[in-house]
Amino acid sequence: MKLCSNLSSPVIPGEYHKEKNHIIGYLRVDHRRVHNLYILRFVICETMNFVIVIINMSILNGIFDNFWMRYFPVVSSLFSTDGESFSNLSTELFPKLAKCIYYDFGPSGSQQTHDALCLLSLNILNDKIFAFLYVWFSLLVVVSICNLIIRIIILITPCIRLKMIRSLAKSSVPLTKNQLELVLLGDHIGDWFILYLLGRNLNPFVFREILDDLASNAKRSNEEVN
């Protein structure tokens, strides 16, 4: 993240205070509540990842009629390390041998027909490629669904969001709930998400100092208003 450049190193650089004040200035009260569109786009991208996987699986299912049901026994046999069973089952979709008919002309000029068994060597590779794709797409679906579920739980549960921010700030004295609420100024998911990304990319001790300064600034602003 450009916003936290020069502050992610474990060694504090010479322009530490300048960079830290730059972040604090960006996250001041008058810049709050403008980041909801950012997290909305982020969640849309994560959702699109899942949708694209489903579309790809549907296309594959259309090309190979009922691929995901028919190829399941093939992949299962692969995990059971039964090579012979894998070869036999995969032949249904990717036959290794096929009847070939050749035409040529005999000595008198009449057409002759020859039939033979042809080895389809490319299908020896195809059955393994599609077994890999089967496993890969299955993993992508599981990971995408879990990621979306976790994201939804985080977005609808304020206490989890507070704990996530607190876990990123290293200090002998843990952040209080009141400090975190001052920093976040209520239930604004976009502001929380920006802070969370900063915490993941900053030196944890620097991040803690930034949170302390933001809490102090927010407290002073509240006192001036009151």
From TrEMBL:
It comes from the Eukaryota. InterPro entries: Innexin (IPR000990). Its main location: other. GO terms for molecular function: gap junction channel activity. The keyword Membrane applies. It is found in: Cell junction, Gap junction; Cell membrane. GO terms for biological process: monoatomic ion transmembrane transport; phototransduction. GO terms for cellular component: gap junction; plasma membrane. Keywords: Cell junction, Cell membrane, Gap junction, Ion channel, Ion transport, Membrane, Transmembrane, Transmembrane helix, Transport. It is a multi-pass membrane protein. The chain crosses the membrane at residues 38-64, 129-156. Belongs to the pannexin family. Structural component of the gap junctions. This is Innexin.
